[in-house]
Amino acid sequence: MASGYWRRQALGLTAAALGAGVVSACQSGTGTRGNRIVAMPTSTPAEERLKPKLWNTTRVEIGRGVSSLATLNSIQTLQLPDARIPYLTSMTFYAPKEVPFVTIGLYYERNSSSAQTRQVLTSSAFALQAISDFDSPLQYEPEHVETVQTIGASGDALGWFADNRQDIVEAMKASAQGAALSRDYDCDFTSKARPPDNTPAALVIAGAQFSGVQVPYTVIAQQVIFAA
Fold this sequence. Notes:
alpha+beta, five-stranded mixed sheet, four-stranded antiparallel sheet, 6 helices, globular
């Protein structure tokens, strides 16, 4: 059932891409410069929505206890250019001060077909990408995605995180936000290297193949800032 969903999404995206090309061709405006006619640049509504300057912000306080986790809800409505990742509803964030990582709680509608979505979001396809240009539609820029290698995490930092990650997950589950969400939704947890402090980042699904089906590039339209 899940693979059928992704195949339908892929077909729909192909049609949408062709339609966007037609609209762009028909709506390009013109202006005058002296006696010359020059084309004026335009952007489609879909491109406008991908500009980070228009998004709201989720602020994650580094080192703040799990008693007040940063939470992001209504994720189905935030996905761009379309709601391509089904079942995902909410996220919670915890960033310890001891290491440059973030643990993210992922909450899904209870559905027997959600396994593929859960596989995508707990893989390397899901990432935090530092925003390099607030005025342009966001594109996937792997050079702005932090990894354990790019942040130069020390052996001590990795050891601390390995020793404490399960305790962090259990504390996030038991928090007020986690307990409330768990009453209605299933959950997973994933951990990522986080961007530099106070650097706005985007949540992206970079695109990958799972079970022979291509999962397309998707952006969650929210700036995430890890504040020291």
